[in-house]
Amino acid sequence: MSKRKRNESEETMEILWQTPANPPQRQDYIFRDGIRYVRPYYFEFISHAKNRWAGKTIVDLFADEFKGRPRDYYVSAVKAGRIQVDGQTVPVSYVIKSSQKISHFVHRHEPPVRAKDIQILHSEPDVLTICKPASVPVHPCGQYRKNTVISILQAEHDMEPLFPIHRLDRLVSGLLILARSASKADIFRQQIESGEIKKQYIARVRGVFPETEQVANASIDYNPREGKSTVELSNNPNGKNPSKGKAACTKFTRISTNGTQSLVLCEPITGRTHQIRVHLQFLGHPIANDMLYLSESAPLRSIEGLSADRAASNSRPLKEASFNEIQVPQPSYELTEDFHIDPMCTNCPNLEPKGYDGHEEGLWLHCVKYSGPDWTYECPYPSWASLC
After folding, report:
1. Is the full-model pTM beyond 0.85?
2. Which H, E and C letters describe 244-282, residue by residue?
């Protein structure tokens, strides 16, 4: 964690520029109205210039590739030394060369998540099982670093290292298995790859689901730009699918119904992105609160976990400033107890990043059971599983 100071003649204040190596702390979190926020912090994003970036000026590179902030911001950031090349301040006309190290020092605002506690279900010397709350991503990715299951467990329970042996989408809740050593994680990985592990979810879906077992055996193609999967069916007599979709299979069994909605047991045989969600849509019974798959014409959304630099937002232009003028944040007298306002930040004075569109509801999709050759872990049903 590097430090930068104001001139010695002024009051001494320090900015701590964090990197992924800095562990999360309990005091990093702010809780308001059932929502967990991360106190904004200074962070160094590091990337290495790709071949296609070579020949662009430093400002053109950021303006073209990272559209989450306006061009004026990048001009100011380069002049202020918040964007550097190979550890050095460069002029706005600097031309990038392939493989150069590019650092972007930002005042980072993470999206909020629900403040529901992470329930520890079972703790063993080499395995930890928890009930993951909806809205919280499993591990650091994109805009999320401290507001993740791994970081929260580290900050609030002093648990590290932890190795997730499977993943749950951010909006999905339920059983999450974490190995406590790399060797144990490798054993789980081998069992998954050999098909020895069975998994079960429950979903609350629209309509009266059929009484008999339903099997969705349809390939899935995931479009990362849209953040959405689609089912692809084979038109060939031999059943082979020439498309880019991946083979996928899920078994579904109705647990109960109230005549309007149904509770369904979901057993994915494969593990594709959004597999259960898109297969339920394919069968005509989408998850009842899944806005992405309730309609074929669902609007495109931003990619979950999109990086802060690429998140779409309307940011205000910034006046030019020297590094000495802007490097030390000024306190907000209304929010002093929470965090300091950075005059160059395109998100301040808000806690959440620009472009964040409100507090999302967790999906009615919940992981309830994982079982292997000689082990089984389970998670209690959530409150929405009652159809009364």
Report:
1. no
2. CCECCEEEEEEEEECCCEEEEEEEECCCCCCHHHHHHHH
Structure confidence at residue 301 (pLDDT): 35
Name the 3-class secondary structure at 58.
Answer: helix
> How much is the pLDDT for 310?
30
Q: Specify the pairing of strand 119-123 against strand 173-179.
A: unpaired
Distance CA 234, CA 143 (A): 37
- Cβ contact 108:309 at 8 Å: no
Distance CA 263, CA 51 (A): 51
The residue assigned the tokens 């082990």 is 375
Catalytic residues: 169
Q: How far apart are CA 193 and CA 60, in angstroms?
A: 44
Dist. CA 62–CA 161, nearest whole Å: 34
pLDDT tens figures, 149-173: 999 999 999 999 999 999 899 999 9
Taking 70 as the pLDDT cut, the residues of the chain under it are 1-15, 234-243, 296-338, 357-360
**Cα–Cα distance for residue pair 241/24, rounded to 1 Å:** 46
**pLDDT of amino acid 15:** 65
Q: How far apart are CA 174 and CA 83, in angstroms?
A: 40
C-alpha separations of 338 from 20, 32, 33, 95 in Å: 22, 11, 15, 39
Helices (H), the chain: 58-65, 71-80, 149-157, 182-193, 275-282, 323-326
Token pair of 332 as six digits: 């907000």
Computed on alpha carbons and rounded to an integer, the radius of gyration of the chain in Å comes to 24
List, for residues 283-303, the tens digit of each pLDDT value. 999 999 999 999 753 333 333
Cβ-in-10-Å burial (0-12, 13-18, 19+) of 195 comes to exposed
pLDDT of residue 329: 34
Q: How many CA atoms lie within 13 A of 340 on its CB side?
A: 16
Q: Taking each helix axis from N to C terminus, what angle separates 58-65 and 71-80, rounded to the nearest 10 degrees?
A: 140
How far is 301 from 246, CA to CA, in rounded Å? 23
